[in-house]
Amino acid sequence: MAHADVARVFAIVVTYNRKALLAECLGALGAQTQGPDRVIVVDNASTDGTADLVRREHPEVELLALSENQGGAGGFHEGLKAAHAAGAEWIWLMDDDTIASPDALAHLLRAPDAMNGLPAPALLASKVVWTDGSLHPMNHPGFERDRTERFIVSCEHGFLPIRASTFVSLLVHRSAIDEHGLPHKHFFLWSDDIEYTARVTRHRAGYLVPDSVVVHKTKTAHTAVTDTGGRFYYHVRNSLYMLRGQTLSKREKLSVIWFLASTTNAYLRNNHFSRESLTTVGRGLRDGAKPAPTIG
User: Fold this and answer.
1) Global confidence as pTM
2) Boundaries of domain holding 60
3) Interval 252-272: pLDDT, tens
4) Which terminus of the chain is more exposed, N or C, with fewer CB under 10 A?
């Protein structure tokens, strides 16, 4: 656990029916050279005994058991809300398949003191690799390119300014929540993290800390494009939500349109333009065009 003179840090792990990976994730948190003050597991109504595992084998961990599966978006929303209400200064977010290197959190927490005049960070992201050590294609951050001078100076100090990031090892300062609220629950899966971090970095600074490394232990080094199931629906729908929102600039929205078009083409081709895949894309376009919920 963290020393008394270190900023108050909560780790939030969102999980759903992957208790073996969760156990490995929690083991890595327990092995941190500079650990969090508190760990909260947000269980999205798992049915595989996850809650019992946490209570039995990790009594030091707090369990936030949701009554229904609210997806990653709902899980992170509730976890951030709980940690913020409990007084956390920094909140470390991750999925249950995130395996942190022993010094991952220590490097994140040292970063604010090494900024040397750079804008204070509201977000700090780890470098995310796959099991073979290569950068995970699902977790490439979106770098800040509009402020050239900040980009150069940040690199000179060992950081990379980011525009957006996933929630796979992201440290969030409580002021980001004070100023910009919580992730949108209605996204359910995919892009909730991109929308939220882009919402914050419109006005605040975020950085990649390359020395902080975690493994995203997915079965394959995949992206949304290569997921051939019906979950591609959320990529389509949530991309339209972002296009209709105020978080992104016009130029950034053009990039989202290009990415959505290219990934949809790849998804349909990978699935041989099957009726199921066409229906998945059609549902995403239809629902993304509807008004988004105004709560959560």
Assistant:
1) 0.91
2) 9-222
3) 999 999 999 999 999 999 999
4) N
Please give the structure tokens belonging to residue 104. 């991952």
**Same domain for 90 and 235:** no
d(CA 185, CA 204) in angstroms, rounded, equals 22
pLDDT per residue as tens digits for the range 25-51: 999 999 999 999 999 999 999 999 999
Question: Residue 204: inside a domain, yes or no?
Answer: yes
Angle of helix 192-201 versus helix 71-85 axis, rounded to 10? 50
